[in-house]
Amino acid sequence: VETDFGKKQNEIIKIINTIPQKSNDPYVSSLITFEGAFETKEIETLFNNFVQKRNMNDLATLRAISGMKSGFDKNKKQIKADALFAYGLIHYYFRDVGGNKALGMDYIKRAVSGPDNIGALTVYGAWQFFGINIKQNIQAGNMSALTGYQRASDKKLKLNQNGPFKGLKAFKWAKKIFLTIAADNRNPYKAQ
Questions:
Q1: Are 28 and 130 in contact, with CB atoms under 8 Å apart?
Q2: 73 Cβ partners below 8 Å, 6+ apart?
Q3: Rounded to whole angstroms, how far apart are CA atoms 67 and 62?
Q4: DSSP string, 41-89
Q5: Is there a contact between 37 and 48 (Cβ–Cβ < 8 Å)?
Q6: Which has fewest Cβ within 10 Å: 37, 75, 161, 189?
Q7: d(Cα 151, Cα 56) in Å, to the nearest integer?
Q8: Of 51, 46, 16, which Cα lies nearest the Cα of 31?
Q9: CA distances (Å), 182 to each of 118, 119, 138, 142, in order?
């Protein structure tokens, strides 16, 4: 974690306990909006605990899991994708107060490739659609955000059923972001 931040632990603790000024990125202006952006209980629990307590151990655990070898195990691949997004999101969120913006963006981008994370699909899709941080690609952005929204909706339907989503939180931010994109005049599918 120290290498990723380029700082010592005591400096990182100060960074993660800072509330950044108003963000110039409307899609990542708060960590709380991403509390349900995961499809594995392990990472959702770790991320939500980090958001509440700003614990260095949770951050280090997310970093370690994001680098694990997942092999062919589907669940381990999803855990890794969720950890990549969580760790990248934290760096990106704290970018103006000492987080590593480039590393955060890289981890978020990696969490979009298979298997992917619903939060990463949503954020990266918004970035693509609006040309924030990356080259604008309206169709790819629309598709990524749509996929994130659809998966978030599917997760929401299964929160109270037995299975991997039972007890997890809904990812409400995906709907808001996708509906913003869907209503935008640049969206070629707006009329549908």
A1: no
A2: none
A3: 9
A4: HHHHHHHHHHHHH--HHHHHHHHHHHT---TT-HHHHHHHHHHHHHHHH
A5: no
A6: 161
A7: 30
A8: 51
A9: 17, 17, 11, 8
Residue 10: partners with Cβ closer than 8 Å, 6 or more residues away: none
| One-letter amino acid of 39 | E
SS3 content of the chain, % helix, strand, coil (to 5): 60, 0, 40
The per-residue pLDDT string of the chain (192 residues; one tens digit each, 9 = 90 and over) reads 999 999 999 999 999 999 898 788 999 999 999 999 999 999 999 999 999 999 999 999 999 999 999 889 999 999 999 999 999 999 999 999 999 999 999 999 999 987 899 999 999 999 999 999 999 999 999 999 999 999 999 999 999 888 889 989 999 999 999 999 999 999 988 877
One-letter amino acid at 40 equals T
Judge whether 177 and 126 are in contact, CB under 8 Å.
yes
Distance CA 28, CA 3 (A): 24
**Amino acid identity for residue 82 in this structure:** D
Question: Which residue in this structure is represented by tokens 């693509």?
Answer: 128
* Residue 122: its H or E element: helix 118-130
What is the pTM assigned to this prediction?
0.94
